[in-house]
Amino acid sequence: MYKSFGLLTNQRLTYKDENTPPNPSCDRPGDSAYDLLRKSASNLFSGPRSTNNRSVSQNLAKSPHPTVILDSPGMTTSLYSTPLSWSVNNQIAVACGRDVYFQDLNTRETTRFFKAGRGQHTLEALSIAWGGQKHDTKLACINDSGGWEVFELGSKTPIHNADSWPHPEIPDAKSLCWNGDLLTFGMADGAMHFYDIREKERSFYVGGTPVTDTDTFTGHRKSVVSFAWDSSGSHLASGDIDGNVHIWDVRTRKALTGVKKNSKIRHQAPVKALSWCSWKSDLLATGSYYPEGIVQVWGTSKLSSGPIEPENTFSLNAAVHSLIWSPHCKELLSVHGVQFEHAPTTHRQRRSLSLLPSSTSVFRLGNTAAAAAALNNTNTPATPLLPDHPSSALAKKSKPTIVAGPLTHSIVVHDYPSGKKLFTLSRAHRHSITAACLSPNGRDVFTASPKEQTIKLWKVWGAPPNRVKELPFESCIIR
């Protein structure tokens, strides 16, 4: 343009900033241009950054809002209940008082299923669970009177109930879980009852309090409040209000934990959150309530070889109410209630702790008064487990304080195995999230908040890539 107007001939217009310090790497003319050219060429050979469309960072993190909110008045506020369940037919069921409803998420049609505890002094249904693939039209329910029932779609009366149990003196049922034809119940005395819905005579039970002094004790001593079957259906994980977790071989009807030295899985608070990994069958995630609030991942394949230690521990200082592994990516979801913080210990307290026996736990919850008071955020004083022990005063001083923080009533997704928090949705509900369940497609999660009286649907993960199965000899060429 300059040449066309006759302003310049063969001269070259350059500009130099006098304030810029000289670059020693550009002593020869053309070095800077060469560097720019090399940098530009390198971008041609480096491919685009791959993004995991299945990860929470590409789904819930971009749209942190529930897609469906359903009113659920009358849900139980019991600490260890599971008042919702998602069937393989995409039906979400919720217990509202004694009435159990379900909605078909394909048609959005809501149906009143049944009323729990007929003929019993029942005030509310505590936990419900749909049957799996083999019994996808059946729903099991336990109520606050300790009874249990099984209903089938289209039937207003139970097809099975506690009266069908062939063993006498049945204690209260506190939790339940399906595994094919077996319906498992966790009892108040620590026993676990396995009810075969095909033939009740094939039912059996394991664990529980010994009847005589000569009986060998195995399993739980307190209420069993959580269950989880592994993907093979041969191993069952169970947790109680004392913080003990056991893994059972259903074929031998024996516990794999606690048999050898240091083979126990132990928390210092009640354990309601249990989840087996779907893409690595020997990984078990456990989560604890107040006052511990941690998530641990255990490699159960090491149980037979002796001592077992958690492979990962995520310290959250928040009550863990439910855990869900993603079946499509290496991520673990946790839902929470209250958040708390521990008071800093003084030198005198640390010295007192060092003098205690190693088996003594300051925060061992023999009764659940302390946990219930904290989770309900009340001022109910907690009864010390060991009132005559010199550490009882120390335990009372060290009780964590409930605080409002980012993990209060939150949904958190962790990367595995790093434990990095990929996404935290604070205040997903206005009150504690007591339960969560995964959709049949493995991407969506329903959460329940009884005090808010709602359940919410969240799009957490994305769909897995469609893998086209290659036919045999398709890549071969016949010449």
What's a quick, concise take on this entry?
With 479 residues, this protein is mainly beta. The chain contains 4 helices and 30 strands.
Oligomer: single chain
**Uncertain ranges:** 211-215, 358-374, 376-396
Give the beta-strand count.
30
Compute the CA-based radius of gyration: 29 Å
Question: What is the percent of helical residues?
Answer: under 10%
The biggest beta sheet reads:
5 strands, antiparallel
N-C termini distance: 63 Å
Nearest-integer average pLDDT? 82
Q: Kindly estimate the percentage of residues that lie in beta strands according to DSSP.
A: 25-35%
With helices defined by DSSP (H or I, 4 residues minimum), what is the helix count?
A: 4
Structural class: mainly beta
What does this protein structure show overall?
It contains four helices and 30 strands. With 479 residues, it is mainly beta. The strands form seven sheets. Strands 14, 15, 16, 17 and 18 form a five-stranded antiparallel sheet that branches. The longest helix has 15 residues. It starts with 30 loop residues before the first helix and ends in a 20-residue tail after the last strand.
Describe the SSE topology.
Blueprint: H1 31-45, E1 68-71, E2 84-86, E3 91-96, E4 99-104, E5 109-115, E6 125-130, E7 138-143, E8 148-152, E9 160-161, E10 173-179, E11 182-187, E12 191-196, E13 204-207, E14 224-229, E15 235-240, E16 244-249, E17 254-255, E18 265-266, E19 271-276, E20 283-288, E21 294-299, E22 312-315, E23 318-325, E24 331-341, H2 347-354, H3 369-375, H4 392-397, E25 401-403, E26 411-415, E27 421-425, E28 435-438, E29 444-449, E30 454-459
